[in-house]
Amino acid sequence: MAELIVSEFDNPNTAFLARAALGRIQGALSLPDDDIVVVNAGENGHVKLCESMKIPCALAHDSFWGVLINLLFVAGDEEPDGVSRKTTPAKLAAIGVDAESMLSFIEQARAGFSALLVLVHGPRMRDQVLGVLRGFQGHVLRNTLRGDDRGAWLRALSDSPAEEEST
Questions:
Q1: In 3D, which of 45, 91, 34, 35 has the Cα closest to residue 68?
Q2: For residues 95 and 143, is the Cβ–Cβ distance under 8 A?
């Protein structure tokens, strides 16, 4: 069972520092690069996804994080594909994210914030990641995800309710 840990920081650079600290213990934890991303929101409100990835898994990785970040952080009444933001809670819930808590948590973030998102697998990895993040005094939110299949999460986040009803 995977868990999504989101740690939000008031400073735009702190998530990068936390990412570097995780990098020092990453090998011991068997924590892949593609399970950690940094999100920055500039003073102008533009959100930027910063990640490192291995090329063979780049497409699924980029798509999953891109769709998730769009649902969580991109403001506005409509997603870029024209789907109403009203579908966001159902999509997040489909992968195990407590949409109400997560969206409330994200709304409190201010311009100029940074966030570190980490997918952890197992209690040892979770506890060590949380231990590192504690030192950076960010606001942490955790969600246990359904399963461990990134492809299934991507499909659940990408599907519209109309598509689900027709299958």
A1: 91
A2: no
Q: Which residues pair with 40 in a beta bridge?
A: 48, 114
Which sequence spans correspond to the domains of the chain?
32-41+49-108+145-160
Instruction: Extract the tokens encoding 105.
Output: 């948590």
**Which residue is listed with tokens 């650079």?**
13
What are the tens digits of pLDDT across the range 30-43?
888 889 999 888 77
Q: What residue has token string 């933001």?
A: 85
Report the SS3 class of residue 148.
coil
Residue 54: name the closest of 26, 35, 70, 69 by CA: 35
Predicted pLDDT of residue 87: 76
- What is the Cα–Cα distance from 88 to 156, expressed in whole angstroms? 11
pTM: 0.82
Length of the chain: 167
Neighbours of 122 (CB within 10 A): 12
Confidence of residue 52 (pLDDT cuts 50, 70, 90): low
